Amino acid sequence: MAPNMVFWNHRLSCFLIVMLSFSCGMCVEVTVPHDPVMQQRGLNVEIPCRYKTSVDNAFVLEWRFAAGSTSPDTGTQILYFSNNKLYKPGAQAERLSLVQYPPRLGDASIRLNNIRASDAGAYICEVNNPPDFYGTGSGTVHLTVLMPPSTPVCKGTTSASVGSDVTFSCSSSEGVPPPIYSWIQQDAKQPLPPSNMVQNQEKGTLILTNLTLQFSGTYICTASNEFGHHSCQISLHVTGIGKAGAVAGALIGAILALFLLGAIVLYILHYRKNKTAKKPQSEYSGNEIREDATAPGIFKPLERRDSKSESKLLENVSSRPGSVSTTKSQLKNIIV
User: Fold this and answer.
1) Regarding beta strands 27-31 and 134-136, do their DSSP bridges make them parallel or antiparallel, or are they unpaired?
2) Is-contact 111 92, C-beta < 8 A?
3) Which DSSP symbol is given to 116?
4) What whole-number distance in Å separates Cα of residue 27 and Cα of residue 17?
5) How would you classify the pairing of strands 228-239 and 159-161?
6) What whole-number distance in Å separates Cα of residue 242 and Cα of residue 251?
7) Between β-strands 60-67 and 153-156, what pairing exists: parallel, antiparallel or unpaired?
8) What is the tens place of the pLDDT at every residue in 276-330?
9) Torsion sign, CA atoms 173, 92, 111, 29
10) Residue 148 backbone zone (phi > 0: left; psi -120 to 50: alpha; other: beta)
């Protein structure tokens, strides 16, 4: 190889080494796990974040948190380290700390104690170290809080008739991973026909079809995952009157009601007819003139008194002087 070529190759190698050194001195590399971090509720968890940079006085570490399934871009600040001072403005401050303090040796991980369901979400680790402006200065870690199912709630129809269908539902408001639901009939004397029972273990529903009296009883739903289980129950009472019987009963009732109404109408018509037939024919009417009727202005003569009453009256009158003639005239008028 020519001496000039060797010389230029040597200069090129030196140039590349210098450029690489300059490049590494001007970049920040943050490394976080790709898989979610999982921990059971109530325990402590470490959320990793490592970085590479030449730490200087301008070094700044920031952690942000986006709860649940919200976008990491909406995360709020929960930890801030700058000028050798640590700030924890978030609601998790009392349970939050740095794994390494101060975080100047490439480890920016945080620890969260006694984790809760509300701690699940995205945690964003960001390192700034001017003038290192190049590279990947931030990383996102997803935390999943594992917990047993909460006590489920059972709903559904509690009374039904033979031949009908019913649907029960069962659901827990909490549980990670999502619980599996299973239904059984409590204290069943014999297993129910599988063809009449349709379960959905993910949604927690149970459909009972073409009911018989055998389906009466208490049904228990159990929600479970690898961290625990809880149950609820609901009772079903199946009556012996099916849909066809109910329709027939309603039809018979309607017929009886019509029959009773007709009987009442006939009775009323018959009663009015009999009342009209028994009415007296000699009953006085406004245009009829009676022989014994008294003409207007003429008083009806008094009835004749018996002889004993007349004698007594005469004796009383005769005992008073000066009134004999008057009394006799009055008595004559009375007798006439």
Assistant:
1) parallel
2) no
3) -
4) 16
5) parallel
6) 14
7) unpaired
8) 665 555 444 445 545 555 555 444 444 444 545 444 544 554 444 444 444 444 4
9) positive
10) beta
